[in-house]
Amino acid sequence: MKLSVLGHTAYDYIFDVPYHPQKGYSIFIKNYSRHYGGGGANICYGAAQLGLDCRLVSSFGKDCRRYEKHLKGSNVELHVYRSSKKMARAFIFNAEEQISYFYWGASEDMDRIKAVKSDYLHIAPSHPMAAMKMASYAKFFSFEPGQDIPRYKKEQLLYLMEHADIIFCNEFELKKLEKIARLEGKEVIVTMGKRGCMIYRNGKKIPAVPQKAIDPTGAGDAFKATFWAMFLKGHDIEQCCKMANKAAGIIVGYRGGQNKTAWKKISKMVYEQHQ
């Protein structure tokens, strides 16, 4: 079984600052580092580390060479549109809370990707037109609008919500989606940060595993990657969510969404679950 993941591939610049300044003021940066990131790539990388056959559907910029080599070396199959723009970039500032800014770059051309058939597809935050194309060729798909909700037209959101087999969203996104369409009867997984997640159809709340957080970047992506790894191995939704919560708890203890040490721990945890 192959999992296709549609979404952004980006370079993440993660900054540590003492606090977020008010408008018109500045603050010094304590530390910063660059990482491989982007929601689509993070999920595909993580799922591949957990043994899934994964295909990343994305748009790559002209400065993709090192990232592309990294993904191929991580057993990720690539189906990409090659843009003349630079790779997408995320500028992430960590203080008491995280604030991010996203430069789309090559992701602006994601709508030019040629759609491919998928038995299983996860639509991470991405270009709406690419999401529509890929969804129409998928037998089973999940939809995660994420921070790209403002880019979707109402008709596009309605189509994807109505046809998705699973919807992933956070509490803020849930309120927006509920205004667009009825979610009763849909399999909706609501992530709630430090409080874990909730299965919408029955209101079942699954608590997070308390962890010391160093960097929350990629926690949601680790959640989805682990959820899919469990789901495709036949586990029920509740068990998938429990393991996904644990994975998110591990990833926040490290910097970056594709941290090798973190994913070795997650992989060991998932492997032991199946023994």
Please state the average pLDDT score: 95
- Shape, per Cα inertia axes: globular
- Quick one: how many beta strands? 13
CATH class: Alpha Beta
Global Rg: 18 Å
The amount of beta strand, in percent, is 25-35%
Please state how the strands of the largest beta sheet are arranged side by side: 5-4-1-8-9-10-11-12-13
Give structural attributes.
single chain, 275 residues, alpha/beta, UDP-N-acetylmuramoyl-L-alanine:D-glutamate ligase, nine-stranded mixed sheet, four-stranded mixed sheet, 8 helices, 13 strands, 27% strand, globular
Characterise the protein shown here.
The protein is α/β, with parallel strands linked by helices. It has one domain: 3-Layer(aba) Sandwich (UDP-N-acetylmuramoyl-L-alanine:D-glutamate ligase), CATH 3.40.1190. It contains 8 helices and 13 strands. The protein has helices at 39-49, 65-72, 128-135, 154-163, 171-178, 219-231, 237-251, 260-273; strands at 2-6, 10-16, 31-37, 53-60, 76-82, 88-94, 98-103, 118-123, 138-143, 166-170, 188-191, 197-199, 204-206. The strands form 2 sheets. It has a 9-stranded mixed sheet with strand order 5-4-1-8-9-10-11-12-13, with helices on both faces. The chain has a 4-stranded mixed sheet with strand order 3-2-6-7. It is globular.
